[in-house]
């Protein structure tokens, strides 16, 4: 049975429970199996040799998630080919594709945790009450060691955008 962490986060001030471990800087990032589309899956190994900024959002169809994904899409332009930015949500893959097309987002890779929430459970961000992933940002080096982690305390707030980008840039130098 997966670990449950009660009262570590809120949604509009109401306590929510996160399922999975609390990951920390220095930990090896767990593998994942997410959907690129309904038929094609992606794993952490698909991005081997790259620095990975993983932006986790509950749903692209909300204001903060929209803004978060657009912001990291803009940041991607200046980070180069050694970096991949992954946006993970529980949205269906075709909803992610529709949103990206409508928003003009073309530099981040959207991946869906809709099937079994395995990413949320492995990364400790699955919200028990909603079966959505909690807003979070992870930066992994080329060896999949976690170099930066922020799991938001309040679901409706923005993450720190500058710190994860700075963590990526430090790995590039």
UniProtKB/TrEMBL annotation:
Major enzyme class: oxidoreductase
Catalytic activity, reaction form: a hydroperoxide + [thioredoxin]-dithiol = an alcohol + [thioredoxin]-disulfide + H2O
Coiled-coil regions, chain positions: none
EC number: 1.11.1.24
GO MF annotation list: thioredoxin peroxidase activity
Domain Thioredoxin: 23-173
Entry annotation: catalytic residues: 65
Domain of life: Bacteria
A Pfam family the protein falls into: Redoxin
Keyword Lipid biosynthesis assigned: no
Keywords from the UniProt entry: Antioxidant, Disulfide bond, Oxidoreductase, Peroxidase, Redox-active center
Annotated SUPFAM superfamilies: Thioredoxin-like
Its job: Thiol-specific peroxidase that catalyzes the reduction of hydrogen peroxide and organic hydroperoxides to water and alcohols, respectively. Plays a role in cell protection against oxidative stress by detoxifying peroxides.
Family that this chain belongs to: Belongs to the peroxiredoxin family. Tpx subfamily.
Assembly with partners or alone: Homodimer.
NCBIfam families: PRK00522.1 (NF001808)
The protein's name in its UniProt record: Thiol peroxidase
Record organism: Paenibacillus mellifer
Lineage: Bacteria, Bacillati, Bacillota, Bacilli, Bacillales
